[in-house]
Specification:
The protein is an alpha+beta fold and 447 residues long. 30% of the residues lie in helices and 28% in strands. Strand 19, helix 10 and strand 20 form a beta-alpha-beta unit. The structure holds glycyl-adenosine-5'-phosphate.
């Protein structure tokens, strides 16, 4: 399969099967925005839930937070975003296209796509200028500068400004982390590669606060744990790497940063950054708010500003990586089968239930199994068309198991359970179907 076409096929499958649609499509679309359909919102929810389960629910040293998207403007001055969250922008006066100066070599001239911007005789490129990526907005009815703030470009700052609240309202002690999942907004100059770089997207971030002299150890732990998380959820080792930033790539306050990168159909791209941010953020917020954000260690009787390790992931970007990895086309008995080999924890629907035919009590029996399974996880009932077609539809949706009630069910109370990847079928006693599925779906974690 040509590499370039994998993304096109995936985009088309996502639209056709209700995973992801272009935002505001009936009005011609709004670039950089995407809507998650019935299967897509289940998949995205499962990505979030798997992250939350593995990083918050099952850890004693991480707690959750859900901060407001709108925050006081000073937050963004303290964090440095108002001053420095910019990309270098170049305009073409001839065709009105806009490019990121640092990506001009990978961009195409809209008038002649075989050339780079600036190479066509009609191109009139401007000098690069700084463009702030935050979306401006106003709080209250008057659009004046005193009321101005921004849609958050990251969830992290909501965590820093609540550090003291969490310390004061819980019994948690350093070292500990605060986790948050939620929407972030960036007015990207060139949103691209499907949902990879969007203007509205979702992040899953942890700020892990620790004693300065233990911070290198925590940095190494989080790097390994976060890398392994993607592997356990099905990203192949060969398509995954951990890349330590060179000194020249680091922000001035950062002691170290590593990126978990995935090999997308167009090349390597960042899934998550794990950054050692020192005491930069808490110190900045102390300075701008005038509030003491230091921590007093009861045991050692020391007071210090904690150092922070930040594993910062994109939920929507991870969803794209899981989709790319899962997507496969293969010839089966002379026919092309499209299948999404999603990890069972991520699959939007865990099982589909079919009557082989619409008679002899098969629909009723199937419906009873469907209703029973529905109490435990997402299931789908389908009685339309040939059973082979129904299997194919579930393969495309990434459903790990299909259960078919057939003529034999009435005689021996068994059904056929077909597994998505191997397409192998086995007969399972009707009263054991739930246990059978639960065991397979929860292998390695929660369904
Ligand atoms: N608090 C640190 C921070 O926000 P970042 O590298 O700018 O760091 C973290 O973003 C993650 O958020 C990225 O690794 C990526 O997965 C995701 N992300 C960033 N910008 C994105 C965009 N425009 N569209 C989709 N995901 C994005």
């Amino acid at each position: 399969m040509a590499e370039a076409s994998v993304l096109e096929k995936l985009v088309s499958l996502c639209k056709r099967r209700g995973f992801i649609y272009p935002g505001s499509e009936i009005y011609g679309g709004l670039q950089g925005t995407w809507d998650y359909g019935p299967l897509g919102c289940e998949l995205l929810r499962n990505v979030r839930n798997a992250w939350w389960h593995d990083n918050v629910t099952t850890r004693e040293d991480v707690v959750g937070l859900d901060a407001a998207i709108l925050m006081h403007r000073t937050v963004w001055q303290a964090s440095g975003h108002e001053e420095a969250f910019t990309d270098p922008l170049i305009d073409c006066k001839a065709c009105k296209a806009r490019f990121r100066a640092d990506q001009i070599d990978e961009s195409q001239c809209p008038r002649k796509p075989s050339k780079k911007p600036g190479e066509h005789s009609e191109c009139q490129l401007t000098e690069a200028r700084k463009f702030n990526l935050m979306f401006k907005t106003y709080v209250g009815p008057v659009e004046e500068s005193a009321a101005q703030t921004y849609l958050r470009p990251e969830t992290a700052q909501g965590i820093f400004v609540n550090f003291k609240n969490v310390c004061d309202s819980t019994r948690i002690k350093v070292p500990f982390g605060i986790a948050q999942v939620g929407k972030s907004f960036r007015n990207e100059i060139t949103p691209k590669q499907f949902i990879f770089r969007s203007r509205e997207f979702e992040q899953m971030e942890i700020e892990f606060f620790c004693k300065p002299d233990t911070s290198q150890e925590w940095y190494a732990k989080w790097r390994d744990e976060r890398f392994n998380w993607y592997k356990e959820l099905g990203l192949a080792g060969a398509n995954l790497r951990l890349r330590e930033h060179g000194k020249e790539e680091l922000a001035f306050y950062s002691i170290g940063t590593s990126d978990v990168e995935y090999k997308f159909p167009w090349g390597w791209g960042e899934l998550e950054g794990i950054a050692h941010r020192g005491d930069y953020d808490l110190t900045q917020h102390q300075k701008f708010s005038g509030k003491d954000l230091s921590y007093f260690d009861d045991e050692t009787k020391e007071r210090f500003v904690p150092h922070v390790i930040e594993p910062s992931a994109g939920a929507t970007r991870a969803t794209l990586a899981f989709l790319c990895e899962a997507f496969a086309e293969e010839m089966v008995e002379g026919e092309m089968r499209t299948v999404l080999r999603l990890h069972p924890r991520l699959a939007p629907v865990k099982a589909a239930v079919f009557p082989l035919v619409k008679k002899d009590g098969m629909p009723e029996k199937s419906m009873a199994i469907y209703k029973d399974l529905q109490k435990h996880f997402a299931v789908f009932y389908d009685e339309k068309g040939a059973v082979g077609r129904r299997y194919r539809r579930q393969d495309e949706a990434g459903t790990p198991f299909c259960i078919t009630v057939d003529g034999q069910t009435n005689q021996d109370q068994t059904v056929t359970v077909r597994e998505r990847d191997s397409m192998k079928q086995e007969r399972v006693s009707t009263d054991k179907v739930l246990t059978y599925l639960l065991e397979r779906l929860t292998r390695g974690g929660e369904a």
